[in-house]
Design a protein that fits this description.
WH_DNA-bd_sf; DNA-binding; DNA binding; five-stranded mixed sheet; 9 helices; alpha/beta; Arc Repressor Mutant, subunit A; 298 residues; LysR_HTH_N; D-Maltodextrin-Binding Protein, domain 2; 41% helix; 3 domains; DNA-binding transcriptional regulator, LysR family
């Protein structure tokens, strides 16, 4: 008797691929372990390729299994998204747009977009998730986000990217620091200071840009701490554990014992870009991008 792949096969496969343990996967699915093993074996026979390597000590994915796991995650997630969009549309809404962002985008860009979406398309629902650059790219590729706001120079070819905001950089100093806007002249005044930077994991582009600001001034900064959160960086500066360089827009929304000196004369700029998957078929994405681009052209 010939068998055909069914949606249940994908769910069973994902459970084993996630757990890499048949008993745990069977418990998760509320089925028997022998039954699960039969379903996976049947799936492998239909596909004519092994998906798992099994021995007494562990279960691992084959290269084909690794590939299938990424594809099935996308398929299953897309089905869930489609079901949710259908429910929203049937209730009279346009659907949902899922937005990822860096903390700095929440200063102006994301709030402005949410207001414009509310005013222009009140039937579009929105969800927000603060994520790193890399996490946003992965989520968009897997179809768990529709749009992201990142600080990246490059993204995979399947994604679109456009700069939506250029910002200056500012020094962040303890309030009691002897240098202020009046006596600041050049960056090399800080050559002997300890620097606190956003981690390269947060944004390699930002990290490299800040390093280039210092190198253009004739020194390589001594980096004492790294963080992925602006508030943490400002707190470290407040406690005189170093100084920082951040996008100027980040100074708003915090009430801490630090001061800012805008670096207006340097060539470097902090660029914020919007990214999206080119073949994303979410009907709300076009409306969202149009509003983003309209605002960025002002």
């Amino acid at each position: 008797m010939g068998y055909q792949l069914e949606l249940r096969h994908f769910h069973y496969f994902l459970a084993v691929a996630d757990e890499l343990h048949y008993r745990k996967a069977a418990e998760k699915l509320c089925i028997s372990q022998p039954g699960l093993s039969r379903q996976i074996k049947q799936m492998e026979e239909i596909l004519a390729t092994p998906l798992f390597v099994r021995n007494k000590k562990k279960v691992t994915l084959t290269p084909a299994g690794e590939y299938l796991k990424a594809e099935v995650e996308f398929i299953v997630n897309h089905l869930e998204v489609t079901k949710k969009q259908l429910k929203l549309i049937s209730d009279g809404d346009y659907g949902e747009i899922r937005i990822g962002f860096l903390g700095s985008a929440m200063q102006t860009v994301v709030p402005d977009l949410l207001i414009k979406l509310r005013d222009s398309f009140p039937q579009i629902k929105t969800t927000l998730e603060e994520l790193s650059n890399t996490a946003q790219v992965n989520a968009i590729l897997k179809d768990t986000l529709d749009i992201g706001f990142v600080r990246l120079a490059r993204v995979p070819d399947s994604l679109g990217i456009e700069t939506v905001m250029q910002d200056t950089f500012s020094l962040v100093l303890p309030k009691e620091h002897p240098i202020n806007s009046d006596n600041f002249k050049k960056m090399n005044q800080f050559a002997d200071e300890e620097f606190i930077l956003f981690s390269q994991d947060y944004s390699a582009l930002y990290f490299d840009t800040v390093m280039s600001i210092c190198e253009d001034a004739g020194f390589t900064p001594s980096v004492s701490h790294k963080s992925v959160h602006a508030q943490t960086i400002f707190k470290l500066v407040e406690n005189k554990l170093g100084i920082a360089i951040v996008p100027t827009s980040l100074q708003y929304g915090f009430d801490m014992g630090v001061k800012f000196i805008e670096l207006k004369k340097i060539k470097q700029r902090a660029e914020l870009s919007v990214i999206w998957k080119k073949d994303n078929r979410n009907p709300t994405l076009k409306h969202c991008l149009n509003l983003v681009f309209r605002e960025s052209l002002k």
